[in-house]
Design brief:
With 169 residues, this protein is α+β, with helices and mostly antiparallel strands. The chain has a single domain, classed as Nuclear Transport Factor 2, Chain: A (Roll). Helix content is 30%, strand content 48%. Strands 1, 2, 3, 4, 5, 6, 7 and 8 form an eight-stranded mixed β-sheet that branches. Strand 7 and strand 8 form a beta hairpin. The radius of gyration is 17 Å and the shape is globular. It starts with 6 loop residues before the first helix and ends with a helix.
Length: 169
């Protein structure tokens, strides 16, 4: 009997666990690392170049943002964030025709200072990402947040905390 974690079953379905050291997982890991570095460096022009023109971001409630709207939210939210840490872990990847799909787990910690007060947001999430193959590699086409948990100053926080965090100082 095969279990959902059975590697042979995943390979038959075209899905490769991230632990499999394939070219696809290496390329996706590199794109994720570049995206994370550019986000932390607040290099929004470079972030834009990592997304397709038709990029879409979908939050857990089903609301969506296009590329310009997401970048504006990130620019606005970067104000007053002296400390942000992001870790990602590629759980699986598969090709779908010329595109690829990846399941990614994220953990983050962000500190926002407002005057003399400090708010610490921490959380984790899982996102399904669709990637488009372009001449120079891969670009993000869609990011769908499938699961998200967050705390504000150590207390469980609801969906409103995400928008609050992205508003910045």
């Amino acid at each position: 009997m095969q279990t959902p974690d059975d590697t042979s079953r995943q390979r038959q379905a075209g899905t490769v666990p991230a632990s499999a050291n394939t070219e696809l997982t290496k390329e996706i890991e590199a794109l994720l690392a570049t995206f994370q570095d550019r986000l932390l460096a607040r290099d929004f022009d470079a972030l834009e170049s990592l997304m397709t023109d038709d990029f879409t971001y979908v939050d857990p409630k089903g609301s969506s943002l296009d590329r310009p709207s997401l970048l504006e939210r990130e620019r606005r939210g970067a104000e007053g964030k002296p400390e942000t840490q992001i870790e990602h872990r590629l759980l699986s990847a598969k090709t779908i025709g010329p595109d690829a799909e990846a399941l990614i787990e994220l953990r983050f910690r962000t500190v926002i200072r407002r005057g003399s007060s400090e708010v610490v947001y921490q959380g984790r999430g899982r996102e399904r990402v669709t990637l488009a193959r372009v001449e120079s590699g891969w670009r993000f086409r869609t990011v769908v947040i499938e699961e998200q948990e967050m705390t504000r100053n150590g207390q469980t926080a609801g969906d409103e905390a995400i928008e609050e965090m992205h508003r910045g100082a």
